[in-house]
Amino acid sequence: MQRAAEPCTILKDMADAKAETSESGGGGSSKLVVIITLVNFLVLLAIGAVVFISFKKENSKPAVTDIQLEGEDGHGGEAAGHGEKADAHGGGHGDKKKEDKKKDADAGKWIALDQFTVNLNTPGGTQQKFARVAISVEVENEEVEHEVQAKMPQVRNSIIDLFNSKRPSDLATAEGRDFLREEIRTALKSFITSGKVKGVYFTNFAVTG
């Protein structure tokens, strides 16, 4: 009986060992599947990250159309700048012309009179003295210029009368000559009616005798 039981015991032990081996092998396979799945997931995640970064870099680069538009805007702005400069230059030239015209208007017209040689008021018993003078008259405009030219005999007569009334000592100083210039201007204003006589100037002045 004991001998019959031994083979059964051996068979049972073999069956238990086989079952343990099967259970052990199944657990190892499950772990391997989990590891492979995890590795695949990490690989996919890495690929996705690389694709996302590459896409972001591509979007950050300026496209050809963007560069063209920026260039066009730049040229437009530059053209506008040139236009503003042109307007500024144009305005500057216009203002300068206006200023020049204003200066010309303020300067008036100049009339150079023929030279005067006139006797001065010399006290009795002294040598006669006379003045040799070149005079220019500044008037407001051409209309006054024409009137002065038309009335030249009257102009010269008024000037001669004023010189005849002056003594040599009256013209010996700058103040005396300035006073005479103002007297001549006042005399001309008394009969020049078309505009202003702006000034009288001695371009040459000498007292001899």
Instruction: Kindly report the name of the CATH homologous superfamily of the domain at 109-208.
Output: Band 7 domain
**CATH hierarchy, class of the domain at 109-208:** Alpha Beta
Proper CATH architecture of the domain at 109-208: 2-Layer Sandwich
Task: Find the CATH topology of the domain at 109-208.
Answer: Tetrahydropterin Synthase, Chain A
Helix content: 55-70%
Radius of gyration in whole Å, from Cα?
60 Å
Instruction: Report strand %.
Output: 5-15%
Q: Output the number of helix runs.
A: 5
Largest sheet: 4 strands, antiparallel
Low-confidence sequence ranges: 1-5, 64-81
Account of the 3D structure:
The protein is α+β, with helices and mostly antiparallel strands. The protein has a domain at 109-208: 2-Layer Sandwich (Tetrahydropterin Synthase, Chain A). The protein is 67% helix and 14% strand. The chain contains 5 helices and 4 strands. Strands 1, 2, 3 and 4 form a 4-stranded antiparallel sheet that branches. α4 packs antiparallel against α5. The longest helix is centred in the N-terminal third of the chain and has 59 residues, at 2-60. The chain starts with a helix and ends with a strand.
